[in-house]
Structures are given as C-alpha cells and as structure tokens.
Amino acid sequence: MQKLIEGLHRFQSEVFSARRELFDRLSNGQSPEVLFITCSDSRINPSLLTQTEPGELFTLRNAGNLVPQYGNGTQGEDATVEFAVAGLGVKHIVVCGHSLCGAMKGLLHPEQLRALPAMQKWLRHAGRTRELIHENYQHLKDNALLTATVEENVLVQLENLRSHPAVRERLERHELTLHGWVYKIETGQVFSFQPETGQFLPLVPPAQSASERRDAAPESVAQLAL
Q1: How far apart are CA 129 and CA 180, in angstroms?
Q2: Is residue 26 part of a domain?
Q3: 3-class secondary-structure state, position 216
Q4: Cβ neighbours of residue 221 under 8 Å, at least 6 residues apart?
Q5: In total, how many domains does the chain have?
Q6: Is the dihedral of CA 202, 88, 161, 106 positive or negative?
Q7: How far apart are CA 35 and CA 178, in angstroms?
Q8: Distances (CA, A) of 139 to 23, 126, 134, 144
C-alpha cells in the first residue's frame, strides 16, 4: 500500500499539475470512442497497451473478459455495455483476451476451482467456449490448447455482445464495429481476428499489406466457430 500512496502523491504533485488542461477538459464530460473489454489480470493495462490518454477508453474488466448474454442475470456487464453504446455512443468495441489466462485455465481444468465456487459459477458464461474446445480441439494439449481456448473465448464473447439490444441496434445501423484481440504477454504482440481468413493475425500499421501480416503471423489455432 505504501507504494500506491507514494504514487498518488507523485500523480497529484507532478502529473496532474503538469497536465491541468487535460483534466480540466475531462471534468466537463467524457466522449470515448472505444469500449475496451478485457480481463482483470493484473498484467493487463489497457491504456499502457494502447498508449491512450484518460478519457479515450471506456473499460470493462472481469475474470476471463466475459460478456454474458443479455438479461442473463449479470446487470453490471449489461449496464456497462448499454451505457457505453447507447449513452456514450462508442464507435468500436474491443474484446481483448490474453495469453496465460488463469480464467481460461480454470475453464479447461474445473477441478482446480474447487475452492472458488463463485469463479466456477462465473465461468458458466464461457460454457460455449468449453463446448467448442471439446468439439474441435481434442488433438491439442498444454499451451496450444490454452491458446485455442483464449482465442475461441474472444469469439464467443463477441457473439454474446450481439445479444445486447443497444449493440444489435447500432450494428444494424452500421454505427458500431466489433473487434476481437488477443494480447500475448510474453512478447507484447496483439493479434486481431480477421473474419475473411478466420484467423488471429498480428495487428500492424495500416500501411502493411494483408499478405505481410499473414507472413509475420505464427499459426493461429482457433477457427471461425461462430
């Protein structure tokens, strides 16, 4: 806690005062363009990862970056998605999974969650992910299986987002775009799902061609399963 308190003092004395104009502007409201849904894992820092400023990302975090289907008893997620989409008018939603995800390990090995009943219940919202892994990836093991689970889970959560009325309405009006990302902790790379290829490919500067992206990509193990 001492480190946190010292950090707060540095923020107030050095950062806030030096960027007073930014914080004055933010005090008048927010207009983020992106709802960023990611895991609660302490190794994930959305603003650091995307190099964004305060006010640019509206963030939803939970174990496993899950988006329960609308009306499935999880009012916190429902309210956050609704407020971002219908209230703030975000133009993009990113669901960002990550390598080495403990929630996805628990999904694959539920016996490891015997002492965590709330976590077991929460992971029911990734039930479709578990089904897809059982149906399509029995040939994989260890880290390859975990990678496939992380990737398929991102796709499942994107599909769950479509069950939210505010999301569905904005998608039908072509006012909203959904993105599936996976962040690799070990290398700092981010992979984006490309519907035209059914693969997660490295996110690169827009000027780089699609063929260059494919050449640079390690083989993705997830399939287009939705």
Answers
A1: 15
A2: yes
A3: helix
A4: 137, 140, 144, 147, 148, 151
A5: 2
A6: positive
A7: 10
A8: 52, 21, 10, 10
